[in-house]
Amino acid sequence: MDYTDRLRLLALQDAQLAEQLVGSPRCDPTELDPKTLALARLAALVAAGGTLPSYGALADAAVSAGASPAEIVAVLTGVVDIVGLPRVVAAAPTLAMALGYDTDQALER
Description:
The protein is 72% helix and 0% strand. With 109 residues, it is mostly helical.
C-alpha cells in the first residue's frame, strides 16, 4: 500500500488498518529502517510521557537496531522544540536510567 492509501485510510479511521496498526505483529512499517523506527518511537514516548519500563524497552530496541546512546539522547534534544523543555527535562532521568546511567548519582559528584 502506498503512502497516499495509508493516509486516506488513517483519515477515515479504517477499522482493518487500525487492527493492523494497534498491537499487531502483522504491522511492519517497512518504509522505515529498524533504527529510524526505534528512534521515532522513543520520540513519541517522550511526547507521551512514558514510564521507565517503556523507556527501557524502547531504548533496548533502539540499541539492538544499531542506535548509539548518543543518538538516543539526541532524540531528546531533537524534540525539545516540539514537546517543550519541561517534557524533555522530565524524560531525561528516565531515559538515562534506561541506558544504565544514574543521573542522581552523577549529580552527587
